[in-house]
Design a protein that fits this description.
This protein is α+β, with helices and mostly antiparallel strands. The chain is 18% helix and 29% strand. A hairpin with a 2-residue loop joins strand 3 and strand 4.
């Protein structure tokens, strides 16, 4: 170094060294930022996953709640709508008698399943929070307290599980005598065409496109209630970037208290359905985080477990290999299915 100061060459060397240090620091910062963004997306996705699974769990556990197990009428369920594949009307039942579940196997987008669940509380509204019992002495509220003058109820004999009358009704229209007690379950406060509420789970790609972080080949998992007045779906997305949705039923076919058969279909005899159905397992293949050009997914995801066996296999191809794919499993025990009487032929 000159006694007069820094030479030009020395200054250039210092600048070059400083540039190298800054470049290394900036590269490290970018790498950390990418990791932080990826992890933040994964954490956010995991939270959404947990919420969606808990909503689905509750719907399955409550299947059959407040439903008569023997009916003597008919009802108007979901209307035909070609917007969806499969048409929601294909999951309709005869309503005489009622089935808590119906499954359309491998008929949805990407050969996914579509699950329909029936219970009085499948539609989340103020009316479904009202339930209790009624007799000639009046109505006893066991659920939410409040005015029930506009609430339409299922009125059910607790012994036979038959409805008091064919159609749900308001309590003001009932005439009860003697000591007979009936269970009552709120369904709605407007036009009620079904003695239950129904919710469908299915994959669907909205017209305005998928969220920007999702693979273009993925779908949204929707939860849709069937409107009591017009039979149309009121849909709401609950799970982003889903590749597949599969449901399998655990059945006890030999009545020994343990599951001996895993099936994508339920017994056609509804008495057997109530007696045999012990468990549902739901498998969801979904994308975790955002696209990462520096990541390549290798191998396949086997959909199923050691009990159910492999239901399907998912192998990412093309641009999908740059997404992190995961499978989550939900094990649920239906808690509100009572054994119906077998009808004599």
């Amino acid at each position: 170094m000159s006694k007069k100061g820094i030479t030009l060459i020395e200054l250039l060397v210092v600048i070059a060294i400083l540039g190298i240090v800054l470049a290394i620091t900036f590269k490290s910062y970018i790498s950390i930022l990418k990791i932080q963004t990826q992890q933040s997306g994964i954490a956010s996705g995991n939270l959404n996953t947990d919420i969606a699974l808990e909503v689905l769990r509750k719907d399955i556990e409550m299947a059959g709640f407040g439903l008569p197990r023997i009916t003597n009428g008919s009802c108007s369920e979901a209307v035909s709508d070609s917007t969806y594949t499969p048409d929601p009307s294909t999951l309709n039942t005869n309503c005489d008698p009622l089935a808590p579940f119906s499954l359309s196997d491998n008929t949805g987008p990407n050969q996914s399943d579509v699950l329909a669940i029936r219970s009085s509380v499948a539609a989340l509204n103020s009316s479904t929070e009202h339930w209790g019992y009624v007799s000639s002495n009046g109505y006893k509220e066991l659920g939410k307290s409040g005015d029930v003058s506009d609430v339409v109820f299922n009125i059910i004999d607790p012994k036979s599980m038959e409805p008091l009358q064919i159609s749900p009704c308001k309590l003001s229209s009932l005439t009860l005598v003697g000591g007979k007690v009936y269970l009552v379950f709120g369904l709605g406060d407007k036009s009620v065409n079904m003695p239950f509420n129904r919710v469908d789970y299915f994959l669907y790609r909205p017209a305005n496109g998928m969220p920007s972080r999702c693979s273009p080949n993925s779908y949204e998992l929707y939860r849709a209630t069937i409107d009591q007045s017009d039979g149309k779906r009121n849909r709401q997305p609950i799970f982003d970037c889903v590749e597949d949705f599969q449901v399998v039923f655990g059945l006890d076919t030999n009545d020994n208290g343990t599951i001996d058969k895993w099936s994508s279909s339920l017994p056609s005899d509804l008495y057997d359905l109530d007696k045999q159905l012990k468990q549902l397992r739901v498998f969801i293949v979904y994308q975790e985080g955002k696209k990462d050009p520096n990541f390549s997914f290798s191998g396949s995801i086997s959909i199923g477990d050691s009990d159910t066996g492999e239901i399907k296999k998912f192998t990412p191809t093309g641009d999908d290999v740059h997404y992190r794919w995961r499978m989550t499993e939900l094990v649920v025990y239906p808690m509100n299915i009572t054994l119906r009487e077998r009808k004599l032929q």
